[in-house]
Amino acid sequence: MRPDLEDLYRDLHAHPELSFQEERTAALAEEHLAALGYETHRVGGGVVGLLRRGDGPTVLLRADMDALPVREDTGLPYASTATATTADGETVPVMHACGHDVHVTALLGAARLLAEVPTWHGTLELVLQPAEELGAGARAMLDDGLAGHLPAPDVALAQHVLGVTPAGTVVLRPGPVLSTAAALRVTVHGVGTHGSMPHLGVDPVVTAAAIVLRLQGLVSRETAPGEFAVVTVGAIHTGTTANTVPESVELLVSVRAYSGRVRERLLAGIRRVVTAEREAAGCPVPPDLELTTSFPLTTNDAAATDRAAAALIDALGADKVGTLEPQTASEDFSLIPTALGAPYVYWGLGGFTDPEAVRPNHSPQFAPAIEPTLVTGTTALAATALAWLAAPADG
Per UniProt, where does Mn(2+) bind (predicted)? Predict the structure, then answer.
């Protein structure tokens, strides 16, 4: 299978698609699954594949399909030169800078392996999800009736290529593995005036600057040392000239935490700080606060993680299975098993053979090694699925 997997990966990498634009990727996945005998459905911009073999457990495997508006700088012979048009009409470069091409390839590889293994029983469900990068794809599939296309799974499994462990290895742990996150668009309204006459207006830039500084206290002064929390102001948009006080300032703010309670406290704190600074500055109009994205906490089920870990050790070797430290990145995968009432396991897949070549996800230089990454990812998905599908009847 290796040559086929490698060719598929290069093709996917060279033809990335933005969130909710994954038509070519979805069609390719649908074609592969249908050729293997899977029943396929299009749901919420994604693809569902089903392989039924009588009574038995039901296992869901998931991969995300979308790419990012990033210009590739890897120098690979199969590097992306693709562009796409955003919802705002802007033309942007597109790259698989997060490894979703690895995920799709490994899932289709596992689909082929499992289709050729005659000894398991039950139902295998494959979910190829759009728009993970927006935190909206899982919800789109659920809203489009995903639950009506498949039986409730006994377990859901997913993986993500990372640089925190070498290629050829996987890492996992029970409990929280990815943070919960949210992003806000905050608009502070002032009164515009000439830069030489600030007393005749209300300067929203000064208010925004005070907000940025005050927000740092939500972590340093309001969060216990043992709790993880991050507040980041990633963008400030305002103004056109040096001698004009603008009418408004837009701030893009993100938060991350390992618990929903901490996340909600941070969001409430942002609203409190923004409102207070507006009042202190005398801004004439209340600020606008819009929640733009929201990601759930990814927290692995303990019993399912133990079972998956045992299968991974059997398939890969004990020296290839390690412990995943909680990551500060976020995912929307958990929405699917949570909505379907299933426990889930999410693990990290090593993607780099050379420590000097490791780049973080979303980097223009993100270039996982094709092997052993693809074989390891394919094996990991197939082996963990069989831990349920090929289990004894009383297991």
Answer: 98, 100, 133, 160, 362
Cis upstream peptide for 372 (omega within 30°): yes
Q: Do 181 and 294 form a contact (C-beta atoms < 8 A)?
A: yes
Q: Confirm or deny that 121 is annotated as ligand binding.
A: no
Helix runs in 128-220, H state only: 137-143, 146-149, 204-215, 217-220
Residue 237 marked as a ligand binder: no
168 with 220, same domain: the answer is no
Residues 276 and 363 in one domain: no
Read off φ and ψ for residue 130, nearest 5 degrees. -85, 165
| Domain co-membership, 159 together with 30 | yes
| Residue 98 known to bind ligand | yes
Catalytic residue among 30, 64, 66, 331: 64
* 306 flagged as catalytic: no
The answer to whether position 394 is within a domain reads: no
Q: What per-residue confidence (pLDDT) applies to 87? A: 87
* C-alpha triplet 298, 301, 304: angle, nearest 5°: 130
Among 254, 273, 294, residue at a domain's last position: 294
Predicted confidence (pLDDT) at residue 392 exceeds the cutoff of 90: no
Q: Let me know: does 116 contact 308? Beta carbons within 8 Å.
A: no
Cα distances (angstroms) measured from residue 68 to each of 21, 254, 260: 11, 18, 27
Does residue 220 sit in helix, strand or coil? helix
Measured CA distances, 42 to 9, 97, 217, 389 (Å)? 22, 25, 46, 25
Q: Reply yes or no on whether 227 is catalytic.
A: no
What's the domain range around 203?
180-294
**Catalytic residue chosen out of the listed positions 133, 154, 301, 332:** 133
Which residues sit opposite 47 in a β-bridge?
42, 128
pLDDT digits (tens, 9 = 90+) for 72-99: 999 999 999 999 999 889 999 999 999 9
Quote the pLDDT of residue 393.
56
